[in-house]
Specification:
The protein is mostly helical. It has 2 domains: 1-85, no CATH class; 94-226, Leucine-rich Repeat Variant. The protein is built from 14 helices and no strands. Helix 8 (122-128) runs antiparallel to helix 9 (134-150), helix 12 packs across helix 13 and helix 13 packs antiparallel against helix 14. The radius of gyration is 19 Å and the shape is globular. The chain starts with 7 loop residues before the first helix and ends with a helix. The mean pLDDT is 96.
């Protein structure tokens, strides 16, 4: 558990957030999420649509996002990915967040809402490719793909130097979907990556593993090379 210095304004914001979350609670969805194995300290079953709408009412801020994340409540952690400022959020804080990425939904939200749109994330994403946490690796792969779409080509060197790692990660069924996403984005948005991605996809398609054959075919279809 992380402890924070008292801040009256931030504490009031957190109370407001928790009141709104309780008001938006969907008990049926919350029960389904618990049954699916989500073991947050608390969860309220609030939809992603409602959370995104609510996040627009909050002023982005590093301190607010960090406090929201460390509440270990599904809804506050997702909100943290939406209000964290992309231009002013240090890698050191994100390193503290990594252990909290324990669920697929949260990994996807962190990748799409924040890490996939945050400039200067290449070194962190490279490190997270080898993180012991499966969902942290999943998040890194998804974010690398989104970076190419939303930020630009700054992660291409990371992508190219770690292509063998990305290929190896495809053997892990828990992150394979993220590997395919990452390669699709690489082949679509980077001229430098199009050829090596196509070569890898054809290698999989022509191989003997039916799962990788399907992945290779999916990537080639995305690239218009099937």
């Amino acid at each position: 558990m992380k402890f924070f210095a008292f801040d009256a304004a931030l504490d009031e914001q957190l109370k407001l957030v928790q009141r709104r979350i309780r008001k938006l609670m969907n008990g049926e969805i919350a029960a389904q999420l618990r049954a699916a194995g989500m073991d947050y300290a608390k969860l309220y079953g609030v939809s992603l649509v409602h959370l995104r709408q609510f996040s627009q009412e909050l002023k982005p801020g590093k301190d607010l996002a960090d406090r929201l994340w460390h509440r270990n409540i599904r809804e506050t952690m997702i909100l943290a990915t939406m209000v964290a400022p992309k231009e002013d959020f240090p890698d050191a804080l994100l390193a503290q967040w990594a252990d909290g990425v324990q669920h697929l939904e949260l990994a996807e939200q962190l990748a799409f809402n924040f890490l996939g749109k945050r400039p200067g994330s290449g070194a962190l994403l490279e490190e997270w490719l080898l993180h012991p946490g499966q969902y942290v690796r999943y998040c890194s792969l998804m974010a690398l793909g989104w970076q190419l779409r939303f930020v630009g080509m700054e992660v291409v060197p990371v992508f190219k130097s770690n292509l063998s790692t990305i290929e190896a990660l495809a053997a892990d069924g828990g992150v394979r979907r993220a590997v395919v996403h990452c390669l699709k984005m690489g082949g679509r948005f980077s001229a430098d990556l199009a050829e090596p991605v196509e070569v890898l996809a054809r290698k999989w398609q022509d191989g003997s593993d039916p799962v990788l054959q399907e992945a290779g075919a999916e990537i080639l279809f995305e690239l218009g090379k099937s």
